[in-house]
Amino acid sequence: MVDVSAGLRDLLADVALRHPSILELGCGTGALSVALLGDGAGSVTGIDLSPGSIALARRRADDAGVGERATYRIGNAALEPVERYDWVILDRSICCFPEADRLLDTALRAAPECVALSVPESRGWRGWLNALLWRAENLWDLVSGGCPGYVHDLRRIERRLAGAGLLPAHSRRIGLWFCGVYRRAS
Ligand SMILES: C[S@@+](CC[C@H](N)C(=O)[O-])C[C@H]1O[C@@H](n2cnc3c(N)ncnc32)[C@H](O)[C@@H]1O
Questions:
Q1: Looking at the DSSP assignment, which residues form a beta bridge with residue 46?
Q2: What is the pLDDT of residues 126-143, one digit of tens each?
Q3: From ligand 1's centre to the CA of 164, what distance in Å?
Q4: pLDDT > 90: what percent of the chain?
Q5: Residue in 49, 56, 106, 152 to alter for ligand 1 test, most ligand atoms within 8 A of Cβ
Q6: What are the structural domain ranges in the chain?
Q7: Which one, 2, 4, 63, 94, has least CB within 10 Å?
Q8: Distance CA 76, CA 53 (A)
Q9: pLDDT score at 28
């Protein structure tokens, strides 16, 4: 698991008390969601665009002995119908999709009590640096055929979450990344 995902996992330590159902949008190969199942999550549904990542996530869950509580499916999280989940996680996925709002729409349709996300910091000097670095990386990706990345406006993301009743609970920075947990005000 990369250090940003590990940082987000640390912020979700109450998983052992709450046993939530979790939806992860852009789950990749399932490193965080399988770890959270091991930590006490009740169930996990992971959605990702990449068939290869989904196959690896399924294998990872089976190898860890938590496959019965894990569902991974290929799909565009911006378009997927979702049912209700306790928690929604967007770990380094908003920055891989041009339309942050559409991923947030899906997250909020799940009516979660908690949203956890990691994104490149867009505020302050880290935001300036990220804007510069990600632009340079996108130029390189144009040449090398890589996927573009996006430094979405974190203030705007937080406004959307707040509008849905999800307020900042815990956060930390890891290098130029921001990890945040937002909880529904009771
Ligand atoms: C940088 S990877 C992060 C994967 C994983 N969350 C992690 O932290 O290891 C970004 C992932 O988001 C997925 N992704 C981006 N946009 C998506 C979308 N609209 N629907 C589903 N998956 C998406 C990509 O396929 C990729 O696996």
A1: 24, 72
A2: 999 999 999 998 888 787
A3: 23
A4: 90
A5: 49
A6: 3-122+150-181
A7: 63
A8: 13
A9: 97
Question: Which residue has the CA at smallest separation from atom 21 of ligand 1?
Answer: 48
- Which residue ranges in the chain fall short of pLDDT 50? none
Q: Which residues line ligand 1 (CB under 6 A)?
A: 5, 26-28, 31, 47-50, 53, 76-78, 91-93, 96-97
SS (H, E, C) 18-30: HCCEEEEECCCCC
Position 146 scores a pLDDT of 78
**Whose C-alpha lies nearest to ligand 1, atom 5?**
28
- Contact at 8 Å (CB) between 125 and 98? no
Residues 3-122+150-181: name the CATH superfamily.
Vaccinia Virus protein VP39 (3.40.50.150)
CA dihedral 109, 37, 151, 146 (to 10 degrees): -110
